[in-house]
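Regression check, nicotinamide-adenine-dinucleotide case 482:
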Amino acid sequence: MAFEMVGVVGLGTMGAGIAEVFARAGLRVIGVEADAEALARGRGHLERSTARAVDKGRLSGERREEILGRVTLTTSRADLREADLVVEAIPEVLDYKRSLFADLDGICKPAAVLATNTSSLPVTTLAAATGRPGRVVGMHFFNPAPVMRLVEVVGTVVTEPGVLAGVSELAGRLGKSVVTVKDRAGFVVNRLLLPYLNHAAGLLEQGVATRDDIDAAMRLGAGLPMGPFELLDLIGLDTAYEIMGALFDETRDRRHAPSPLLRELVAAGLLGRKSGRGFHGDTATPHRLEKSGAQTVKVIGEGAEAMARRFADAGFKAADDADVVLRLGERPVVEHAARLARPGTLVGVHLVGERVAEVALTVLTSHEAAVAARDLMKVIGLTPVPCKDRAGFVVDALLHPYLNDAVRMHESGYASISDIDAAMKLGCGYPAGPFETLEEIGLPAVRDGLRALYAEFREPAYAPAPLLDQLVTAGAATFDRA
Ligand SMILES: NC(=O)c1ccc[n+]([C@@H]2O[C@H](COP(=O)([O-])OP(=O)(O)OC[C@H]3O[C@@H](n4cnc5c(N)ncnc54)[C@H](O)[C@@H]3O)[C@@H](O)[C@H]2O)c1
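Current build output:
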């Protein structure tokens, strides 16, 4: 399958980047926009993006001229009649895309392949809008397209043999890594990422922890490049809301119902970075932090001695009736508190990695003890994440279901372990794929974490995936990638 000339329809955030990627790989590109004004904006995107690359020394001025010289911009779809492939990147509205595909089908030569960059709409429905359903595929790039190395290539039940291979080979020529998948809402990356982000919005809404504490927990505790609210603001809350809606429509999994908080922010026009404010970006002044007056601290539970030593080194005294009692280890924290003479002094502490301490506050915890526990964690160099006494606290509550979803996705036959790991690393910039993370944490710890979440929330999707459960039972420490 020879692709020499490609069309890109819609030169917004994604389309302009996709056009650039094709032109960089030496293909001739016809970029189509809706009207002259949008076309000028599209041209601006292309010119600025390539100029930035020159400024950073990643591209010579001469190469830039060559790249721009390969792109023809037009407002006429009829100019696509010679294209071998057309990639559509217009807004995520099924009716717009369906009518565009019907139109392209009438314009493009019969052998041309039509591709959609949709994040969440069914590729099959778009294929059915044409007289060539076998030559319609998904080609899902990530933002920014010139930088992100992943392309999800999506085939439907009617895709002709050879078309998927041809498009995947082309994506390889563009310097991208390809994951080939079937037509399921969200494909690999959004199917795993968005429910995690939606879950984070749910924890915020339930008051389990604050926005900044959840972001810090996931960045510093789970080692992710961004916290969930930082990432939601980057993706755009409207986009996230749309994708969640599409996931829910397909799965009817209540965890995929878009968080009401997301809906409210979108309705208020707070869309994230693109509108200047989303979860972040408010102008409210931060609360002035109180300082605790705690003088004495007692540490109990697993690993208490080592932590008590750190407090002693910092000049705090140990006492039996201390101002604050820190309980390391098992949950529920409140059961330990209820046994004390002064239950308000007890706070649960759960260390996550080297830098984060989740500080679990129960219904009995006094305000003074809560403030003291937070300060004490800072004294010994940890980032405190105050949260409610709930299964998984913050990090495990968000991380374990995501890992479980990845195992279930593999078990369902949708994608291989190595494809899922590669997709999450290249599509989200995660330092490790979910299976690598599972193996690093330890399969039994994740299985047990999921059991605890399931026991507390009775959420069917939190029940450990059978494969994970069986591997733990069999004593395996790793997944079989063969
Ligand atoms: N933004 C992302 O992070 C991202 C990532 C992956 C995939 N996507 C998908 O890519 C697609 C485009 O998203 P975007 O963020 O680039 O949107 P965008 O709003 O930035 O760009 C859409 C562009 O399409 C143009 N357009 C609208 N109707 C048109 C028509 N009939 N003919 C030609 N051009 C038309 C608009 O003028 C606009 O420039 C969507 O399907 C989205 O789901 C987006």
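Comparison notes: The mean pLDDT is 95. Residues 9-15, 32-34, 38, 89-92, 100, 117-119, 141-143, 235, 239 surround nicotinamide-adenine-dinucleotide (CB under 6 Å). No diff flagged against the previous build.
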